[in-house]
Design a protein that fits this description.
CATH topology of chain C: Pyruvate-ferredoxin Oxidoreductase, domain 3
Helix content of chain C: 25-40%
Low-confidence stretches of chain C: none
Number of domains of chain B: 2
Low-confidence stretches of chain B: none
Structural class of chain B: mainly beta
Structural class of chain C: alpha/beta
CATH class of chain C: Alpha Beta
Largest interface: A-C, 26 and 21 residues
Number of domains of chain C: 1
Oligomer: heterotrimer
Number of strands of chain B: 5
Strand order of the largest sheet of chain B: 2-5
CATH topology of the largest domain in chain B: Alpha-Beta Plaits
Mean pLDDT of chain C: 94
Helix content of chain B: under 10%
Distance between the termini of chain C: 29 Å
Number of strands of chain C: 7
Strand content of chain C: 15-25%
Largest sheet of chain C: 7 strands, mixed
Shape of chain B: elongated
Radius of gyration of chain C: 16 Å
Chain lengths: 392, 102, 194
């Protein structure tokens, strides 16, 4: 029986963690993810869960402790944001290459400079090539549902990779919205027990992890990681199908909205996808053939799904909530263009928006589509990329 | 002696034949790695002069001086890299140390 | 038929405008609505002007932006009228609710020609008389419910009592004083209509 509740994104994902009851959480507080370790500490103190909470002195230590704990055979979780994720950088790569499927709740916040606590995707986008699976949520419901699925996806024997469950800081993490929760027992049965094949605390079978890897082996091990990330796609679909049976809520690599007869599409990640759906409805009522592709899974990149969804479009506007400083556009823009290259004749416009908490309104989305119409009309886009919501 | 669970791992393996993330199965695998061939100088144990003080044993970086019933035996030349520390520490000239070929 | 009510709260850091928006979200949730309650986040500074928002709807909410064209505006601190453009975008079919000891007519000159309904409530006086402290957000909550009509007074009082009983199970005196603040507030809200 679904439980009707009203919760913030941080509360929702903390309840998901409580229901999963991981063996270990090691975390260091940073806005806007602080509430998650706070709630979990309370659950531990109250005896609601028997998770071992490790209070560490930095995020580098948090990720190191998580790595050791997951390697020991314990299901492990952490949470962070922005500079905290940046301080984990080195360990992110080590965890992925050691094939340790821990989970990280990333509450997206601008990666400082100048200092800023509000939402954009620059923190997790910087970590997009660290070998982690990345799943993004539109709202508190998805943050909750995604986290529960992340545990299963990462731990699957064909995958064995760490998973970052991302949601937008403040916009999702601190706003209270309606949500449907699953029963504790349902979640428990869904995630099951963590049963790694090899783990450090197995007294019957000794293993060593994270050895030095010479040139004669390194490339093969990196290829193993690539295959695991490829395998993750099928596992994501399988886990989603099982989740749908339990919850009635459907998930995939991407979500298509009003794409059946669309001629102009927007590709977007996170909470602004919800705002964009309202904009699409409004523009559809005005007779404009617009549609939306929301990226749920960003790593592994949904190449096939993206090409299928966007083939036949007159124009595609790709929205990046992160400045890549590549001088070529944002990371999502570059990826979508790479996926579409040689496969479609659509005009592709890349727009950077919503940096450091710049509010994204229905009108902002309409403006982005408007610029796309103009680009298609003009027969193409100039070199470079656009900014939306910038004072000029 | 422990099984060498890694004996099938070598530089000819395809990617799928290697362990995930380079994990090393089993313990004590270094025993199967013959570092004796790195040696360019060699210690010699002169049993007659040895008082069994065992000072040489803990200083050996490669655990190549076997001890049985509180007595050291001849060197384990499968693993001795020929560093000469045992020769330096021996108070009784019970170990000589020479470059190979001299 | 979609019925969406958007409310913007203006207050100062530490006055509980954010809490009021979360309480309103809470009580509207218990009547079966889809709700959003969120503040505009930034550095937390006592006394600095802050904004919080509510969306209340009979259909699921997807939009995740701030509110620029609110149906109702609640001003928890009347000194903000001089420094913040509280009526910006406020629909004239809607209303503004102000915590002040003054009558609605007296604050009109500060509302930049706003043409809709104006409600005033002396939330400070009511909260001191009932709760014993200046906690303006409790009476303000009642005034906003009355002005907006998002739920009936009976529904509001019933749900608030249940919620307070849940939160303050060990302090029954807190429940009664807060309920009294809400009841008095519902009665004392003053309306100016052109």
């Amino acid at each position: 029986m679904a439980i009707r509740e009203r919760l913030s994104g941080n509360e929702a994902v903390s309840i998901a963690i409580r229901q999963v009851n991981p063996d270990v959480m090691a975390a260091f507080p940073i806005t806007p993810s602080t509430e998650i370790p706070q709630f979990i500490s309370q659950y531990v103190a109250n005896g609601t869960i028997d998770t071992e909470f490790v209070a560490v002195e930095s995020e580098h230590s948090a990720m190191s402790a998580c790595m050791g704990s997951q390697a020991a055979g314990a299901r492990t979780v952490t949470a962070t944001s922005s500079c905290g994720l940046a301080l984990m950088w080195e360990m992110l790569y080590v965890v992925a290459s050691a094939r340790l499927p821990l989970t990280l709740c990333c509450i997206n916040r601008a990666l400082t400079g100048p200092i800023n606590i509000n939402n954009d995707h620059s923190d997790s986008m910087g970590a997009r090539d660290a070998g982690w699976i990345q799943i993004y949520a539109e709202n508190a419901q998805e943050a909750y549902d995604n986290y529960i699925q992340c545990v299963r996806i990462g731990e699957h024997k064909d995958v064995q990779l760490p998973v970052m469950a991302c949601q937008d800081g403040f916009i999702t993490s601190h706003a209270v919205e309606n949500i449907l929760l699953l029963e504790d027992a349902e979640v428990k049965a869904f995630v099951g027990e963590y049963e790694p094949e090899k783990y450090l605390l197995n007294e019957k079978e000794a293993v060593s992890m994270g050895p030095y890897d010479i040139a004669n082996y390194y490339m093969e091990h990196k290829y193993q990681q690539k295959v695991a990330l490829d395998n993750a796609k099928q596992v994501i679909y399988d886990v989603a199908a099982e989740f749908e049976k339990m919850s009635g809520r459907k998930y995939g690599m991407i979500e298509e909205y009003m794409m059946e007869d669309a001629e102009y599409a927007m590709v977007i990640i996170g909470s602004s996808a919800g705002t964009a759906k309202d904009a699409v409805d409004k523009m559809r009522a005005e007779g404009k053939k617009v549609g939306l592709v929301k990226v749920r899974v960003y790593r592994p990149f949904p190449e096939e799904e993206m090409v299928k969804a966007l083939s036949g479009m007159k124009g595609v506007v790709v929205m990046d909530k992160a400045e890549g400083y590549s001088a070529l556009g944002g990371p999502l823009g570059a990826d979508v263009k790479a996926a579409l290259f040689g496969r479609t004749n659509a005009v592709v416009l890349n727009i950077v928006y919503g940096l450091g908490g710049r509010d994204v309104r229905v009108e902002s989305i309409e403006e982005a589509y408007g610029r796309l119409f103009a680009a298609v009309e003009a027969g193409g886009v100039p070199f470079g990329y656009d900014y939306l919501g910038l004072r000029k | 002696m422990k099984d060498n669970l890694m004996k099938h791992i070598n530089e000819q393996n395809a990617w799928h034949e290697l362990t995930p993330g380079g994990m090393i199965y089993g313990s004590g695998n270094s025993e199967h790695f013959n570092t004796g061939e790195w040696r360019v100088a060699i210690p010699t144990f002169i049993e007659d002069k040895c008082k069994q003080c065992l000072l040489c044993v803990p200083v050996c970086p490669d655990s190549s001086i076997p001890v049985v019933d509180s007595k050291r035996l001849d060197f384990d030349f499968e693993h001795c890299k020929g560093c000469g520390i045992c020769y330096k520490v021996c108070p009784f000239d019970a170990i000589t140390f020479k470059k190979i070929g001299e | 038929m979609k019925k969406l009510t958007e409310i913007r709260w203006h207050g100062r850091g530490g006055q509980g405008a954010k809490t009021a928006s979360l309480l309103l979200a809470d009580v509207a949730f218990s009547t079966g609505l889809y709700i959003q309650g969120f503040p505009e986040y930034g550095p937390e500074r006592m006394g600095a002007p802050i904004t919080a928002y509510n969306r209340l709807c009979n259909e699921p909410l997807r939009v995740h932006s701030n509110i620029y064209y609110p149906d109702y505006v609640a001003v928890v601190d009347e000194t903000l009228l001089a420094s913040v453009d509280v009526t910006a975008g406020l629909k004239k079919e809607g209303a503004i609710v102000i915590n002040t000891a003054k009558n609605p007519e007296e604050v009109l000159p500060l509302l930049k020609g706003y043409e809709g309904k104006v409600y005033t409530i002396d939330a400070a006086k009511i909260s001191i008389a009932t709760i014993g402290k200046n906690i303006p957000n409790t009476p303000m909550l009642a005034a906003v419910v009355k002005a907006s009509g998002v739920m009936s007074e009976e529904e509001f009082l019933g749900n608030m009592e249940a919620s307070l009983r849940h939160k303050f199970a060990s302090k029954p005196e807190v429940i009664e004083s807060n309920m009294e603040a809400l009841r008095v507030s519902l009665k004392e809200v003053k309306l100016y209509e052109r």
